[in-house]
UniProtKB/TrEMBL annotation:
Record-stated family: Belongs to the UPF0337 (CsbD) family.
Record-linked Gene3D superfamilies: YjbJ (1.10.1470.10)
Compositional bias per record (Basic and acidic residues), positions renumbered to this chain: 1-39, 46-57
Region (Disordered): 1-57
Originating organism: Marmoricola endophyticus
Name of the protein this chain belongs to: CsbD family protein
Domain CsbD-like, chain residue ranges per copy: 5-57
TM stretches of this protein: none
InterPro entries assigned to the protein according to its UniProt record, in alphabetical order: CsbD (IPR008462), YjbJ_sf (IPR036629)
Length: 57
Protein backbone atom coordinates (compact mmCIF):
# COMPACT_ATOMS: atom_id res chain seq x y z
CA UNK A 1 0.00 0.00 0.00
CA UNK A 2 1.34 3.40 -0.87
CA UNK A 3 2.10 5.95 1.77
CA UNK A 4 -0.44 8.36 0.27
CA UNK A 5 -3.19 5.73 0.49
CA UNK A 6 -2.32 5.01 4.11
CA UNK A 7 -2.47 8.72 4.92
CA UNK A 8 -5.83 9.15 3.18
CA UNK A 9 -7.31 6.17 5.01
CA UNK A 10 -5.96 7.38 8.36
CA UNK A 11 -7.39 10.85 7.73
CA UNK A 12 -10.78 9.41 6.75
CA UNK A 13 -10.80 7.26 9.89
CA UNK A 14 -9.88 10.21 12.12
CA UNK A 15 -12.55 12.39 10.51
CA UNK A 16 -15.09 9.62 10.99
CA UNK A 17 -14.20 9.31 14.68
CA UNK A 18 -14.51 13.09 15.10
CA UNK A 19 -17.92 13.12 13.41
CA UNK A 20 -19.07 10.27 15.63
CA UNK A 21 -17.97 12.08 18.80
CA UNK A 22 -19.55 15.38 17.75
CA UNK A 23 -22.74 13.60 16.71
CA UNK A 24 -22.87 11.84 20.06
CA UNK A 25 -22.22 15.05 21.99
CA UNK A 26 -24.88 17.01 20.10
CA UNK A 27 -27.32 14.09 19.91
CA UNK A 28 -27.16 14.23 16.09
CA UNK A 29 -27.85 10.66 15.04
CA UNK A 30 -27.21 11.37 11.35
CA UNK A 31 -23.75 12.82 12.00
CA UNK A 32 -22.89 9.95 14.32
CA UNK A 33 -23.98 7.43 11.67
CA UNK A 34 -21.98 9.28 9.01
CA UNK A 35 -18.91 9.07 11.22
CA UNK A 36 -19.34 5.34 11.65
CA UNK A 37 -19.80 4.97 7.89
CA UNK A 38 -16.58 6.89 7.23
CA UNK A 39 -14.69 4.65 9.65
CA UNK A 40 -16.09 1.50 8.04
CA UNK A 41 -15.18 2.78 4.59
CA UNK A 42 -11.63 3.45 5.74
CA UNK A 43 -11.37 -0.05 7.20
CA UNK A 44 -12.59 -1.62 3.97
CA UNK A 45 -10.08 0.37 1.93
CA UNK A 46 -7.28 -0.73 4.27
CA UNK A 47 -8.35 -4.36 3.90
CA UNK A 48 -8.41 -4.05 0.11
CA UNK A 49 -4.96 -2.52 0.06
CA UNK A 50 -3.66 -5.29 2.33
CA UNK A 51 -5.00 -7.92 -0.09
CA UNK A 52 -3.28 -6.17 -2.99
CA UNK A 53 -0.04 -6.04 -0.99
CA UNK A 54 -0.28 -9.76 -0.22
CA UNK A 55 -0.51 -10.63 -3.92
CA UNK A 56 2.47 -8.44 -4.78
CA UNK A 57 4.78 -10.57 -2.65
Amino acid sequence: MGLADKAKNAAEDALGKAKEVVGDATDDKDLKAEGKKDQASSSLKDAGENVKDAFKK
